[in-house]
Amino acid sequence: MNPIESRPVQNAIDRLLTCGPFELEDKDKAPLFGPAMAEAFRHHFEHNEFFRAWCLKQNFSPEKKSEDPAEWPYLPSAAFKRRNLISVPAGDIRSEVRSSATTGAPSVISIDMMTSRRQSLASARVIAEYIGHHRRPFLILDEDPAASASPREISARSAATRGFLLFADSVEYFLKEEDGGFHLDDEKLAKSLAEHERSGREVCLFGFTYILYARVIKRLKEAKASFRLPDRAKIVHIGGWKKLESERVTRPQFLEDCGRVLGLKESNIIDFYGFTEQMGLVYAGSGNSPKVVPAYSEVVIRDFDTLRPAKDGQAGLIQILTPLPHSYPGISVLTDDVGRIVGRGRDEAGRWGARFEILGRAENAEARGCGDLMPEIRTRGQ
Amino acid sequence: MPIYKIEAPNDGRTRAPWDLTENILQSSPKIVDWEGVALGLKDGARVFDGITAGELLDFFDAAALYLASTESGSLEKYASLGISFLIPFLRRTNLERLLRISLKGNPACMDTFVRLEDLGKMVMARPRGLIVHWLAGNVPALGAVSLVQGILTKNANAVKLPQENGLFLPSFFNRIARFEHQTKRGRVVSGKDLAAAVIFLFCEKDDVESQRRMSLTSDVRVAWGGQEAVENVLRLPKKQDAEDVVFGPKYSLAAIGREALDPAGLDAVALRLAMDASVFEQRGCNSPHAAFVETGGKISPFEFARALASAMEKTLRRIPRQPVSAGEAYAVVSLRNKYALEGEVFASPGTEWTVIYSEEKASLPACGGRLVFVRPISDIGDVIEHIRPGAQTLGLLLDDKRRIPFAEKAAAAGIARITAIGKMSLYDHPWDGLFPMERFVRWVSLE
After folding, report:
1. I want to staple A290 with a disulfide (CB 3.0 to 4.6 A). Which of A218, A261, A355, B268 is the partner?
2. CATH code of residue A354
């Protein structure tokens, strides 16, 4: 069964969601995306006091909206760490997603039914474009989220994982939390991989980039183990590259090792990018290919110095606009990720949309001596 | 993981980047026998036995004049890296004063025994041996400050470079190493000879083993850096009698009394503070990140914030902005967003400068990127609450009557330096509360 549901068209946002993610040329996307964004801006402007005040400070109101998405105000992702921003009655909130927050406070995103539905639909449509619509066994290199505490509070990690499980007909987890850390069940994984190798049935390995490489691929490589998974088997990985890069593992090395150990083609290794403040919107790239922007969002790269849109090819902060969030004003978010546009139009696989690369994270400037500066000027007693 | 010897880049390099890239490291020689290299450096430092402190001062004075000349091309080449600060630092008028203060009033004690009347005996200052400098990349010129003081005190010097701007110091020192100066006595002091006692190094920050080896050979460990960086150095094992000189993370701020501001002088004060906050892109330990302005005067703190905003824009034309990092850009946008609804934000359209007026009482973030907070205070004494150990420079504008009592309280609270607004961005001594050269020597007495 096709896991992507269909819904009656009700408004500009839903109209946009009836489109396939990569079937719209720019000229066809603009008349759908612009009104959908206008609708979303108006909703949050009218129902979120903080968002309204912020827009007015930027001298922006729904009446003054520009045709150019780059002219619309944006919230830095850090705004979602400072307060829980809600644009619907509190009773409508079904769940809260919290980012992992390796440092400082986590982002907290409140999700209502409408947001959840839109995000699930958009996410499923994009994922299906890369891994196919059918279901297959998923081998998850993470712990079982059933072990997590509250059904209302969801970690960004398990929320991201859930989006992919629409495409699973069976799920196995291979990490366990023990002694405050995660441990891989090597034996169980090796057994499962061998079984899928024997059966020839398509399978999907899913994991966070670092864990997948450091805990699985690297260990299998060191053990000189190798499998020959079926032709259409895939690796789907999400999460940043920073930790791997710090261990001097490059993307080509990652792809080569994954391919060699599991017997997969590079094009079947798919890297997904997304972030908590726009949960559900994912951007994928096969092998070394860049990420493609679907019809449901627009990417603007902001120049570090001018904050104006950067030229294609130039690095800057990634801003993403999408009309999907209804319960919180995450419709135009400046992330602390650095990227660049590397192409537009139709890619080799026939997908329409801007193509971009993630270059890394905008790290907080390290406080150094002469010492540069301390991270904050503290008052006594604090 | 290896220790790399970093050599001066091809002198054709005229502009950034000065970072130590993977390519540069790959082509740099690796040091296997560090302990042997350290001994060789100490051996090289014997060249100082034949050079007097006065001759070293003359050499650096002449080198400064050469670096300032059009012929050297240094002003243009190192414009964004603090050369305009380094040249006056190297002049004899500055270094001799520093040496005199650090060495009991007589630099000649570096050359022979001199009589200290108060002590009733003769003393001589000897170099401690090998100084290992762990540098930070935020203000590259500071590495030269550390190194020159190491040479003046006749020590061997190993400089562990930062990755960011790590090529600046080898390139800069290479110019000094190629310089020769004939002293009044006819003696030629050669930069090449001095360079025999200097080496530039790099190793990864998580290469604890290499740094442990460097630390164990050090007679003085100079650590520049943030909290984590200096703590990492201090955790390394060291010789029992090795000296530590730490320049850790610092912050600076300004305080303005109510009677010190009037409409006629407002723009001038604002411009001076804007200059202090813009030099070195506010990355210095002496860069102000907040100005506390007393209420009840002819100019309100809010009016001062507005005037400061205008001055920041004027200063931008005088000191063009260096490219901002992604981290700084994001931090600036994030803080503008936070305070847009909790204060008033004055800002350039890009990330060039930001002035934030805020009445909150909590801690102030210090993010750099020419971002200054202006906060109202009802009494100048309230500033003391914001001064803790780690505070470096306080730019003070206050009437004479209240100035000394307030300064005493600020000193007790932990400030290292109090100066006029407009002079905060000058680097002078004592630095972070100490005279480094005082710590780079050991004393020998002779009765």
Report:
1. A355
2. 3.40.50.12780
User: What's the number of domains chain A is made of?
Assistant: 1
Structure tokens at B66: 């050469």
Interchain CB contacts (distance < 8 Å): A and B = 180
What are the C-alpha distances in Å from B358 to residues A79, B108, B341, B374, B376?
Answer: 18, 53, 10, 6, 8
Residue numbers in B near A360 (CB within 8 A): 326
- Structure tokens given for A161: 């994982």
Question: Where does CATH 3.40.605.10 sit in chain B?
Answer: 3-248+432-446
- Strand ranges across the sheet with B343-347: B343-347, B354-358, B371-377, B288-294, B251-256, B391-397, B417-419
Task: Report helix, strand or coil for B149.
Answer: helix
Of B250, B321, B330, the CB nearest to A373: B250
Q: Is residue A5 part of a domain?
A: no
Tell me: the pLDDT tens digits for A135-189?
999 999 887 776 655 555 566 677 778 788 889 999 999 887 777 666 788 888 8
Contact residues, chain B, for A80 at CB < 8 Å: none
The region, left, alpha or beta by phi > 0 then psi within -120 to 50, assigned to residue A353 is left
Does any domain span residue A329?
yes
Q: Which of B142, B349, B388 sits opposite A370 (nearest CB)?
A: B142
Query: In this structure, is residue A316 part of a structural domain?
Result: yes
Task: Please report whether residue A372 resides in a domain.
Answer: no
Contact A369 B341 (CB under 8 A): no
- d(CA B134, CA B169) in angstroms, rounded, equals 13
Q: Cβ of B250 and A50 within 8 Å?
A: no
Residues of chain A positioned with their CB less than 8 A from the CB of B137? 368
- DSSP calls for B200-241: EEE--TT-HHHHHHHHHH-SEEEEES-HHHHHHHHHS---TT
Topology of the domain covering B3-248+432-446: Aldehyde Dehydrogenase; Chain A, domain 1 (3.40.605)
Determine the distance from the C-alpha atom of residue A14 to the mean position of all C-alpha atoms in its chain, rounded to a whole number: 21
Q: Rounded CA gap, B68 and B408, in Å?
A: 39
CB-CB under 8 Å, A54 with B249:
no
- Cβ contacts of B326 on chain A, cutoff 8 Å: 304, 315-317, 336, 338, 360, 362-363
ipTM value: 0.86
pLDDT tens-digit series, residues B232-243: 999 999 999 999
Do residues B48 and B196 make contact, with C-beta atoms less than 8 angstroms apart? no
For residue A166, with 0-12 CB atoms within 10 Å meaning exposed, 13-18 middle and 19 or more buried, which class applies? middle
3-state secondary structure of A38: helix
What is the pLDDT at residue A364?
A: 66
Q: Give the gyration radius of chain A's Cα atoms.
A: 21
For the domain B251-419, what is the CATH superfamily, name and number? Aldehyde Dehydrogenase; Chain A, domain 2 (3.40.309.10)
Tens-place pLDDT, residues B121-153: 999 999 999 999 999 876 677 788 889 999 999
Q: Which of A365, A371, A382 lies nearest to residue B331, judging by beta carbons?
A: A365
Contact residues, B window 371-430, toward A, CB-based 8 Å cutoff: 385-386, 388, 390-391
Is the N-terminal amide bond of A145 cis, ω within 30° of 0? no
Contact A364 B327 (CB under 8 A): yes
Q: Look up the domain containing A151 and give its range.
A: 12-361
Domain with CATH 3.40.309.10 in chain B: 251-419
